[in-house]
Specification:
The chain is mainly α. It has one domain. 72% of the residues lie in helices and 0% in strands. It has helices at 2-20, 24-47, 55-70, 80-96, 104-122, 124-129, 138-163, 178-194, 204-232, 247-251, 254-268. Helix 4 (80-96) packs antiparallel against helix 5, helix 5 (104-122) packs across helix 11 and helix 7 crosses helix 9 (204-232).
Length: 269
């Protein structure tokens, strides 16, 4: 627990500096770097199943998506069909160079899935940072999203550790409990109201809805990565952070909350 607290404190300080004190392009570079590490961890996990993943291609393409989002050249600007076509074409061309064709379909599908699941979803953080949505400033939007989502992670951990007795979905994650899930949701919901001042233009009813959405989706994101880890028979995606696991373990709850949060704020605009 001491390791978790220390690492979390360092991350909070670093994220605060990147969001509020550095220009938007630095934030985009930071997101791209986090994406690259998370994707490499994902491919390393999947490689344990002896599937022909294209890790370096995936990492390079994945890290470019947040950068392209910063320049406002990204899937949500209308070129998603070109992106999908280009990705599929490139991965199949890579497969053509392989001597073996065993599990070719799995390798192609997993590579494309990783790019969308990690890189595209996570790039919505950059989209929110550089957005011109009238309801809120990009920096405070990101701060709200991170605080509410990660409050759920922290709440789920502590409620599960001290009060957890009923397993949530043991076949996916044997340590997650129903009490932890409820506690995490309540922490996200309450933190949304506590952080409402970050987005004063948004009515409280929408703050409440965002608290519910982020509280639920954050835990689904966590469970989704747990499902992947369970399938790959690993405890953590990596060992980068003491007590917390790898980079993908750190950002998994944000992969679903980031795009949904952005689109909801855009709807309000």
């Amino acid at each position: 627990m001491t390791g978790r607290i220390i690492v979390s404190a360092i991350w909070i300080l670093a994220i605060g500096v990147v969001i509020f004190l550095l220009p938007a392009w630095c934030f985009a570079v930071a997101v791209a770097a986090i994406t690259a590490v998370a994707m490499l961890e994902f491919f390393n996990m999947v490689a344990r199943k002896r599937l022909p993943v294209y890790r370096y291609f995936g990492v390079v393409v994945g890290s470019l998506i947040p950068i392209s989002t910063y320049f406002k050249f990204e899937p949500t600007q209308g070129w998603e069909f070109l992106l999908i076509t280009t990705l599929c074409l490139s991965v199949f061309l890579l497969q053509f160079t392989k001597r073996e064709t065993d599990n070719a379909t799995s390798g192609v599908a997993i590579t494309i899935f990783a790019i969308f699941y990690i890189s595209w979803f996570f790039s919505f953080l950059v989209k929110a940072r550089v957005s011109d949505l009238v309801v809120s400033d990009g920096r405070t939007m990101i701060a709200f999203l991170l605080i509410v989502t990660k409050s759920g992670d922290i709440g789920a951990y502590f409620f599960g550790k001290f009060f957890g007795t009923h397993h949530l979905i043991p076949k996916i994650s044997p340590k997650k409990t129903t009490e932890g899930a409820i506690g995490g949701f309540l922490c996200s919901f309450l933190s949304a109201f506590l952080c409402a001042g970050l987005m004063p233009q948004i009515e409280l009813i929408h703050i409440a809805i965002l608290g519910v959405l982020l509280g639920v989706l954050g835990q689904i994101g966590d469970l989704s990565e747990s499902l992947i880890k369970r399938d790959c028979q690993v405890k953590d995606s990596g060992t980068m952070f003491l007590g917390l696991g790898g980079m993908l373990d750190l950002v998994d709850s944000l992969l679903f909350t980031s795009p949904i949060f952005y689109f909801y704020i855009r709807f309000l605009s």
